[in-house]
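Q: How would the structure tokens look for this protein?
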Amino acid sequence: MTLSGRPGRRRWPRLALAAILVLAPWVSFLAADRLWPVPLPGAAGYARLVLAADGQPLRAFADPQGVWRYPVPVPAVSPLYRRFLLAYEDRWFLAHPGVNPLALARAAGQALRHGRIVSGGSTLTMQVARILDPHPRTVAGKLRQIFRALQLEWHLDKEGILALYLNHAPFGGTVAGVAAACHTYLGKGPKQLTVAEAALLAALPQAPSRLRPDRHPGAAQAARDKVLARLAAQGLLADQERRAAMAERVVAAAFPQPQAAPLLAERLAARARPEAPVRSAIDAALQGDLEALVADTVGRLPPGVSAAVLVVDNDTLLARAYLGSSHYGSRQRAGFVDMVQAVRSPGSTLKPFLYGLALDEGLIHAESLLADAPRLFGPYRPANFGDTFSGPVSVREALQRSLNLPAVQVLEAYGPDRFADRLEEAGLTLTFPAGGGPDLPMILGGVGVRLAELVGAYTALAMDGLAGKVRLAAGEPLARRRLLSPGAAFIIRQILLESPAPDRLAGERWRPGPVRLAWKTGTSYGFRDAWAVGVAPRHTIGVWLGRPDGTPVLGQYGLASAAPLLFAIARRLPDEGALFPPQPASVQTRTICWPLGQEAAAGQEELCPVRRPALILAGQIPPTLGLPAGMSDLEPSPLSILTSETTGLRVGADCGHGPRRPWQIALWPRPLEPWLAANQRRQALVPAWDPACAGQARPEPIRITSLGDGQIIRPAGRAAPQPELSLQSLGGRGRLFWLIDGQLRFETAAGEPPPRSCLAPGRHQITVIDETGASDRVDIFVQEPGQPS
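A: Here is the predicted structure in token form.
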């Protein structure tokens, strides 16, 4: 018992000693690992990268230290480069625990033999350790590097360590990581690399400053060829491939960091996670094309002018092109201001929504009669561009020609508050002047909107009336709101599709093609903002031009400046063969009558002097919009009268003699009479009062007294100057509007003559209209001096 127990008692200390000897290094390593944790990089160490829809970089933002390092996962790097890298740097990477003893022994032997360090014997893991925790090239530094390598292998798998190298290896200057190196030196991403490119990138981290291809192309090429030779020696590269790769020259160039869609990229980068690129919806090719087009277009405009363009996919509401300014970075053109998001006056671009909402309300149809004539709306007197007027116009004509007076007339009937509420509900935020709110001037630009929201609202014309919020990236939610009914959206789109292209677009810059464009322009007060918005089957385009500081740009307006750019952009979009939604069942074509606006009926020809085919909505054929009750001098339409069967003169129920005959007359609104043919005017349509009813007769409320209809104005002699015309009137109420050849020339009080004026030789039309819409018109002829009488 005693002899057999003694060896057992001796065995326990030996086992404990062995355990201590075995476990002590691991315990020490774990303790050191807790005391000095591996300094893994955080997300803030990456540059922020904004990508196009196809993954192409749009813009990069350096990290806080100014280093260009783009995050890239291992699978997104060319397998060819990964194979070359491991073969050249660390063939045993997948097998060793972070340190290769044979490589270290070989490096030590070379150092003893040559008296200097020839090779470091570092594995790829040790190189990562040195990148993360730099150390001096000493024995202590090497031991520290080995410790960090073991830590990396303990905490990470091989793919994690390789990812650190791919993202943090130095490639010269402020370029770190293979993705940034590819974009900087090769102008491409790291996914697709040639044999020569992969070998070059494998060589650069060996001496990144000395081998920079943009500064030392010869040294870079020599290092690349060394890699190719070693790969061929290892049997990883055929000799023919090696020779072909060596024949490629390393070009001494550094590609600039991407700067496409810079203002959009700033917005996206501000909300992006640094460890992962943010992918936008931008079409990189289209973006580059439009940036060149816009810069060229705006470069020919006055100094300080900038432009903004937004192209949106109708189905997805994704922004396919985004130009916040025409010249990013230009101080003269305020190139850092994002005009896609700026609040600006929209000019006439809200008119399609007003007419569409009025269609849905049953106030109008596509051919409703509107009055394009001078008129006061309380203290507000709107005018058309150039102060010209057209008299009777349809909704279609008013919208296509962007006439102001008809739009104000419709807004007055619909209600400014309701209009503003409907736009806001659909996602179009309106900014009113300080202390102001919805009013009549808003339809002519007396409000502020953003281009992004305006384009989102216009997509309703291609999406059955559903407006949407523009999405900058595919991850953003898709949001649509009802703005118009499908029928109203169809009618408004058809009207805008039929708008003729401006004359200056009829030549080489715009040749009619397969792309159909429903388009509208706008110009804000004082020529501060020029707009053009176009809806194609697949895309909606918004264009703004002007000075970001709000300074007027005389001579620049929607039709002249923004429309040509709009059409040039439309020609670059892939909308060929695409179709708009079909005509909904709620839209029909009917024949309507002017001036009453109702459907033509058999046996009522006297109430239908003008017939027009009209698109109507949901079977509604509303009568012509009435005028305010305050304009009491207007007769209702149709006018029901009694005439004497004996004399044919007008009589009343309590005056006149003999049998009476009822008669209905379709009277045009009185403000339109100056533009009517002589046989359509009130005086020609309504019989004179019977003398027996003289007390009921009403005299004409206003009359031009200084000129007679058909009068010829002759100079005093051959050498005499052109005669000055004296314009005087009798009657009328309130303000008087004097038009010469349809253009507003003077505005006076009743009884106050306008200034004398000279007219060029030829025929002229003089018209005076009072606040109630009563008017008089004379046609005169001014004779040229020396012309025989």
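Residues 711 and 780 are 5 Å apart (CA to CA).

The first helix runs from residue 2 to 35.

Upvote if useful.
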